[in-house]
Design goal:
This protein has 464 residues and is α+β, with helices and mostly antiparallel strands. The chain is built from nine helices and 20 strands. It is 30% helix and 28% strand. The strands form five sheets. A six-stranded mixed β-sheet has the order 16-17-15-18-19-20, sandwiched between helices. A five-stranded antiparallel β-sheet has the order 3-2-1-6-7, with no helix packed on it. The longest helix has 31 residues.
């Protein structure tokens, strides 16, 4: 332990500064100067030598609140720092009493032993506030705590529940006590009769209005369903087997698009993150199939990654592997969709990679993927649409996905998602019409396409 260290703590409160604790290099010289804190303050001799001059105060009292100043002299050099101690105390549960007088009710609310000064408010179960009418007193006790006394006197014309609320803002604490008023006050016969008559008249009026509305509705021709409902009904009644296979780089909105399709089609809360949007790898990149209807399947493929040379890359899955997997599937049942952020520009290498992917899909399935540009709310780059249209895409769709943080419904967002799903169904019908009626010829014509893809030397991989 160093022998040339001296430390002192001072308390500044209500304009007065006093010494609280003094420390010297010898532990037996350490003592407390302030009698109000004597026996409750401690420093840490072994830590002071290492530069830690912390002060511990036990059994904190209200008078301990204030600004604390620390002085340390070590090897002839002086150091100074300050800290502020704020002391709060919870109020007791308020006690509420009522006294019935001739023309009014007198209410008394008391809550004790809290700090700092509380806010006392009066309300009823009908939204009424009587805080302005109340007389409130806050009394400081010898312990430095507050007792709150509040009185409210007024006449209430009908039955209601009145509450006294004690609010301690630093603790974010609200305690209340309530009382039911008016149970002992009975209306006279005439007032009660008038009230009963008014209720009866209102009931008859409401009944007549309902009957009139029902009559008008029967005579008014029913409107045809809007475009949103038509799109949803078409999806639910679609009978041809089709799988919508979605491909994308990571963080392009593919998972949110899949979640949005399920959210809008089912048309119910809550929003569900079934596609693990925002999940870290490998959970967020795993393949996933969702059965939207008996005939329609949404398939999330394993997501592509971009490496330092700006190409698609994966340590476990090569181009030959995923092309072989697709070759074993019934290609004509799949509608391929490529998802890309609408606010993300394309650099040259990435354009070549996407073009190669589209050509591979075209050779395998005889059509280019449908392109979906997400982040429609941020503005879609025109160059992106031109790029994908020039690749040969028949459809380039812009959508504003629903997400975990943003799933407030709107008709425009709903219709964009439903239009995209119906475009997929149109492509499914078109593919069926273009199928060769001879199964054997279809299979034989697909073999040279697969062999052509597998013979290409360019490396194109997907993340597992």
């Amino acid at each position: 332990m160093r022998k040339d260290i001296v430390g002192e703590w001072l308390q500044k409160r209500q304009g007065r500064t006093k010494s609280i604790h003094l420390f010297h290099q010898s532990p037996e010289l350490s003592h407390v100067w302030d009698h109000g804190v004597t026996g409750r303050s401690t420093m840490f001799p072994s830590a002071v030598a290492n530069g830690n001059a912390s002060l511990l105060i036990s059994n904190v009292e209200m008078t301990d609140e204030g600004e604390y100043i620390c002085f340390i002299v070590m090897d002839g050099a002086g150091y100074r720092d300050t800290a502020v101690l704020t002391v709060v105390a919870s109020y007791e549960q308020p006690e509420l009493q009522q006294v019935l007088e001739q023309e009014a009710v007198s209410l008394s609310c008391v809550s004790r032993k809290g700090f700092p000064a509380a806010l006392v408010s009066w309300i009823d179960d009908r939204g009424g506030s009587y805080s302005q009418e109340a007389i409130t007193e806050l009394t400081l006790t010898p312990e430095g705590l507050y007792d709150a006394h509040s009185r409210l006197k007024r006449a209430f014309s009908s039955q209601r529940r009145v509450c006294c609320i004690i609010t301690n803002s630093p603790l974010q604490e609200r305690k209340r006590s309530c009382v039911q008023l008016g149970a002992e006050q009975q209306e006279d016969g005439r007032t009660r009769d008038i009230y009963t008559l008014m209720v009866s008249v209102m009931f008859v009026i409401v009944l007549l209005i309902l009957l009139y509305c029902w009559y008008c509705r029967k005579r008014t021709p029913q409107k045809s369903p809007g475009p949103t409902e038509k799109n949803r009904k078409r999806i639910s009644s679609f009978s041809q087997l089709v799988t919508v296979r979605m491909l994308s780089l990571r963080r392009q909105g593919l998972s949110s698009l899949l979640n949005s399709c399920l959210y809008i089609y089912e048309d119910k809360e809550p929003y569900q993150n079934v596609a693990s949007s925002r999940a870290p790898a490998p959970l967020g990149t795993q393949a996933l199939e969702i059965q939207l209807t008996e005939s329609i399947t949404l398939k999330k493929e394993q997501l592509f990654e971009i490496v330092e040379d700006k190409t698609f890359w994966s340590p476990k899955d090569s181009k030959e592997v995923y092309l072989s997997r697709w070759r074993d599937e019934r290609s004509k049942d799949f509608i391929n969709v490529y998802v890309h952020r609408g606010d993300m520009k394309l650099y040259d290498v990435l354009q070549k990679e996407i073009k190669q992917l589209f050509e591979d899909v075209k050779l395998l399935t005889e059509s280019y993927p449908i392109t979906v540009l997400t982040k429609k709310n941020r503005g879609v780059e025109k160059e992106l649409k031109y790029f994908f249209l020039n690749l040969g895409c028949r459809h380039v769709v812009s959508v504003h996905n629903y997400t975990i943080d943003d799933h407030s419904r709107s008709s425009d967002r709903d219709n964009d998602i439903l239009d995209f799903m119906n475009i997929c169904l149109d492509e499914g019908l078109r593919s069926t019409c273009e199928l060769d009626p001879s199964p054997s010829s279809s299979a034989s014509s697909l073999i040279p396409l697969i062999n052509t893809l597998l013979s290409r030397k360019k490396s194109f991989r997907m993340d597992p």
